[in-house]
């Protein structure tokens, strides 16, 4: 059975229900939207399509809570959200005993709601400056001196900073690391950033008094920080109830780096790709991962009479998994590998689902 397409969505994608899809699923604590989708669908990213969501509903989804029921409406080819009305009745598991109108709970602001993906895996990537793009690096305030000339700073030490704070008072401290290069163009599109800790503004600079230096206090120290390290404003914590969906426009990307400095990545590992918000990606976008097909010589074909050279042919890309985009910068994005059939490598292809 093929799922119906969502209103206002891009051209229909091939969304197939699993042959062994259940009639319903009782949501329990620990479930994720991706896990639930996988019980019903061959490709979990088809969730908004079979839910009948439009783009606005994808951006502002209804909360789903433990105790609610996801019901498979086979006739319509849709999934629907219901609440148990009377769990004590023998027929409580039937469709007639489900209230199928989606409920939006406001109490607790979704505190107990089901998340889309395992939140604990990506939490450090939501709050720490692990990628710094070129424009951020050029304009970042920097530590120019330390309290009493100390080489390194610890908690509650003073740090002296120069640069435009742009009205901010709380900052993260980072140290630029390895450059991130586009696998195709070889251009540097950003830098890995070593997160060192946080600083809190104590006294803003007074140019009228002859000094353009701000005084900060170390609020937290994860690693040793010191002279030359740079600052960026602490970003707001983004909402974690992302709805998985294909990008609104066609995206073709490559894996730039694997977090942790390893050469291969598997399920629940984080990678960065060379496309971002300016390329049409947003939080919740899902891309398919492929090993890029190699270019090989075709020794079986007739050789060209010009130099008797063998023909070069490119082998097809091979699909190996799916990538859930959870943090988006201008030209770079972070994605969590959701499922994979072979290890992911730098240079692998990530593109819109087909």
TrEMBL record:
Domain LysM: 23-72
Gene3D superfamilies with a match to the protein in the record: LysM domain
Organism classification: Bacteria, Pseudomonadati, Pseudomonadota, Betaproteobacteria, Burkholderiales
Family matches, as PROSITE patterns: LYSM
Protein name: LysM domain-containing protein
InterPro entries: Bact_Kbp, LysM, LysM_dom_sf
């Amino acid at each position: 059975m093929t799922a119906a397409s969502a209103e206002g969505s891009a051209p229909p994608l091939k969304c197939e229900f699993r042959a062994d899809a259940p009639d319903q699923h009782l949501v329990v604590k620990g479930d994720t939207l991706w896990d639930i989708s996988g019980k019903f669908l061959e490709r979990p990213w088809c969730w908004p399509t079979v839910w009948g969501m439009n783009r606005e509903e994808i951006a502002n989804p209804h909360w789903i809570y433990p105790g609610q029921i996801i019901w498979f409406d086979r006739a319509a080819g849709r999934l629907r959200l219901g609440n148990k009305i009377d769990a004590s009745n023998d027929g409580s598991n039937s469709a007639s005993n489900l209230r199928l109108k989606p409920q939006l709970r406001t109490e607790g602001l979704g505190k107990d709601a089901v998340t889309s993906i395992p939140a604990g895996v990506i939490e450090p990537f939501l709050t720490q400056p692990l990628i710094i793009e070129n424009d951020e690096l050029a304009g970042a305030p920097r530590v120019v001196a330390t309290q009493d000339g100390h080489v390194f700073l610890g908690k509650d030490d003073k740090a002296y900073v120069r640069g435009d704070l742009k009205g901010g008072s709380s900052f993260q401290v980072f140290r630029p690391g390895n450059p991130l290069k586009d696998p195709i163009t070889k251009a540097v599109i950003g830098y890995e950033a070593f997160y060192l800790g946080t600083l809190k503004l104590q006294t803003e600079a007074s140019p009228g008094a002859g000094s353009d230096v701000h005084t900060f206090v170390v609020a937290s120290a994860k690693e040793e920080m010191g002279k030359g390290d740079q600052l960026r404003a602490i970003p707001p914590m983004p909402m974690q109830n992302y709805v998985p969906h294909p990008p609104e426009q066609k995206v073709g990307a490559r894996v730039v780096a694997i977090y942790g400095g390893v050469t291969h990545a598997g399920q629940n590992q984080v990678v960065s790709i060379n496309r971002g918000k300016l390329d049409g990606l947003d939080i919740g976008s899902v891309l398919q991962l492929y090993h890029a097909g190699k270019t090989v010589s075709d020794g079986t074909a007739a050789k060209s009479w010009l130099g008797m050279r063998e023909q070069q042919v490119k082998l097809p890309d091979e699909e190996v998994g799916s990538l859930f985009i959870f943090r988006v910068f201008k030209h770079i994005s972070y994605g969590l590998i959701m499922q994979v059939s072979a290890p992911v490598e730098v240079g692998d292809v990530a593109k819109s689902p087909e």
